[in-house]
Amino acid sequence: MTSAPSAGDARRLAAASLAAGDPTGWFEQLYAASRSGQAEVPWDVPAPSAHLQSLDLPAGDGRRALVVGCGPGRDAEYVAALGYRVTAFDISATAIDLARERHPGTPVDYRVADLLAPPTDWRRAFDLVLESNNVQALPTAIRAAAIHTVGTFVAPGGTLIVLAAATVRTDSGGDGPPWPLTRAEIDTFAGDGLQPVSVDNVGAAGTTLPTRWRAVFTRP
């Protein structure tokens, strides 16, 4: 059985990037190092998120969806298979290159974009928004701004799904990322007029993230 990629490379690069005053530059560094065989991306696994799959999402029927921090595209492809017109973005150009290479002929519109400075026409433009495991990789100094921005993507009548670490196993080593979100932080996703539908604390046995948040919000 193949073991999961180690988080050590991500933590090493994140620490150096944060020390240099660049809280997000390490994402591109990590993907580029991984592509050259010099690092491992711990979340780069073949299957879509089990916690995403556990949600009873309706068929997309051509409605618009946005996947935040999509990496190589596993969750974006899952959402597209449900019938959504998916836009998926990542701050790392290498991650977007990998997504396009791994999914030739995909209907997903993969783009390089920054969560903290997104295209203005994305505001309230998407019927489904997926934020999976991105905010947990951001330091406190920029986390509140990221949480607020995620909510602005949701169209009237739309849904926001948030998946994030609630705890990290104490023997997993290092100081993060990820940095678990508190319940108070999860609740702040309900800004910009969003309302909570459900906030669940769910188990993830056998992983370095033994409990996780699975939250759903909507814009009336």
From TrEMBL:
This is Methyltransferase family protein. Keywords: Methyltransferase, S-adenosyl-L-methionine, Transferase. InterPro entries: Methyltransf_25 (IPR041698), SAM-dependent_MTases_sf (IPR029063). Residues 66-158 form the Methyltransferase domain. GO terms for molecular function: methyltransferase activity. GO terms for biological process: methylation. Pfam families: Methyltransf_25. It comes from Actinoplanes xinjiangensis. PANTHER family: METHYLTRANSFERASE, UBIQUINONE BIOSYNTHESIS O-METHYLTRANSFERASE, MITOCHONDRIAL. It comes from the Bacteria.
